[in-house]
Specification:
Structural class: mainly alpha
Oligomer: single chain
Radius of gyration: 27 Å
Strand content: under 5%
Largest sheet: 2 strands, antiparallel
Shape: globular
Number of domains: 3
Strand order of the largest sheet: 1-2
Helix content: over 70%
Distance between the termini: 73 Å
Length: 372
């Protein structure tokens, strides 16, 4: 009489069954953010290089080595690196290769969606921008994923053990690995993983640890002091006021265009990017872009006034809202109208957003703590 193994239930899972649902890496959100950054920088740099050099062709004559081919090569190299090597440094390398490669590839989407291989087709820039936003959105969602399940802890611990094999652990890596092992050991849902964690913990405790990074801390302290000297609060606020006011005033041009479109009179002819918009017509992308730019302009000007009056918390919040609306929505429609303009707009808006976030971290957060 043969014996059939009986599955034993442990909590909500069944021992003996193999689970194939994906488990997010502990550094997955950071890697996807790196892909998004590399993608965006690649597109901006590529477009700028092509404009400055007059759109050169590599190969000449019968052949043209489009940069989509180089992007495909980098994507291949990134995939091979991820498949071949398991070191922790491979993951950021793969993220950069995937970001740069996909940026070079998607930048030429206009050639693939038009019958006459039109790199400059108006629909190309919105597609590129939507792809960028999708990757950035995926990174945001991944950052919010809870990684406290037994399988997630086990995967993170297994990844952390590769650091033990490579050499001394950093204090942060050691603390994180021990925390994962302790959580696994205390979880009754998976007694097998708990036993594994208890067996592995002495190995991690005995692993060599790098000495405290005095040089790193000293460098950070020096940078903080330099930032305090070069950008005191009044200087940082002045930069935000000027940036918000100038960008807001430029964005209010959309309000003028929107008013002309809505008026639709006999003299309401517009010339945008060498394209004539006949009187009485209201192209959907132009209406959406103009309305969005008008909203962004009003918000940024309100933010500049609030900062000028010392209302830092309200001013930075409104400024950030206007910039997020511009970056996440308005630029999609704007890209259909002028691809080069949207590249400049994205760079300027992103820089101003970084300055706003840094100002909030340095000064507004301190106000919140002292108010308590």
């Amino acid at each position: 009489m043969s014996t059939v193994p009986v599955a034993v239930e442990t909590g909500t899972t069944v021992a003996g069954t193999r689970r194939r649902t994906p488990v997010q890496r502990a550094d997955g959100a950071r890697s996807v953010r790196l892909v998004a950054v590399a993608f965006g920088v690649t597109v901006v740099v590529t477009r700028l290089y092509l404009v400055l050099t007059g759109y050169p062709q590599i190969g000449g004559g019968q052949y043209h080595l489009a940069h989509a081919l180089w992007g495909g090569l980098l994507l291949l190299l990134g995939g091979l690196a991820a498949l071949l090597w398991g070191n922790r440094w491979v993951h950021p390398l793969t993220a950069v290769l995937v970001g740069v490669g996909s940026g070079l590839f998607v930048d030429e989407v206009g050639k693939f969606i038009t019958a006459h291989n039109d790199y400059f087709t108006p629909l190309a820039a919105p597609i590129i921008y939507v792809v960028f936003l999708a990757v950035l959105g995926l990174a945001t969602l991944a950052r919010r994923t809870h990684l406290d399940q037994p399988r997630s802890r086990a995967y993170a611990a297994a990844e952390g053990l590769t650091e033990v094999a490579d050499g001394p652990l950093t204090p942060a890596a050691r603390d994180g690995l021990l925390a994962d092992l302790d959580a696994m050991a205390a979880d009754p849902a998976r007694p097998d993983l708990a036993a594994h964690a208890r067996a592995v913990r002495p190995l991690v405790e005995a692993a060599p640890v790098e000495p405290p990074g005095h040089r790193t801390r000293a460098t950070r302290a020096a940078l903080a002091r330099a930032e305090a000297v070069l950008a005191p609060r009044w200087v940082a606020r002045l930069v935000l006021i000027a940036g918000s006011a100038l960008l807001g005033a430029a964005s209010l041009l959309g309000l003028v265009i929107l008013a002309v479109l809505l008026a639709g009179g006999p003299d309401a002819e517009l010339v945008l990017d060498a394209q004539v918009v006949p009187p009485g017509t209201r192209p959907p992308f132009l209406v959406v872009a103009s309305a969005g730019e008008a909203v962004v302009g009003v918000l940024l000007l309100l933010a500049a006034v609030a900062l000028l009056l010392g209302r830092d918390r309200w001013g930075t919040a409104v400024c950030r809202a206007g910039l997020v609306i511009a970056l996440a929505g308005v630029n999609v429609a704007l890209g259909y109208l002028d691809a080069e303009l949207v590249v400049v707009a994205v760079v300027v808006e992103f820089v101003l957003l970084v300055l706003v976030e840094r100002y909030r971290a340095r000064f507004v957060a301190d106000l919140h703590l002292t108010a308590r």
